[in-house]
Request: fold
Amino acid sequence: QVQLVESGGGSVQAGGSLRLSCAASGNMYSRYCTVWFRQAPGKEREGVALYSRDRTTSLADSVKGRFTISKDYVRDILYLQMNSLKPEDTAMYFCAAGPAHVRDNMHTCTYDDDDYMHWGQGTQVTVSS
Reply:
């Protein structure tokens, strides 16, 4: 059983910073890939940052230069450091984990939310102008 628990959301003014945490537990073999998704009211869910077990990371274009993703392997916590926040970053942020696509011995993680079977409850981020 995999459990993901997000924390760190809140309300900030534009230009501010927040650090989100995703504490994970359970079967690590089913969570090779971990992704931060966000969903704003009336909008589709969007993948913003990705971390794979081989320490490959990826950031969506909309957050590059402002967000960073990192992991504390000792405590098994995934972080999303969000700087220079904008009102358009306002959303519920979710941590999700799942297996990688494996082909020719290569592991690939995606931003397709259908690939992720384990989800946290979400943490709200609100950025005011």
In short: DSSP finds no helices and 13 strands in the chain. The radius of gyration is 14 Å. The mean pLDDT is 94. The CA atoms of residues 40 and 91 lie 4 Å apart.
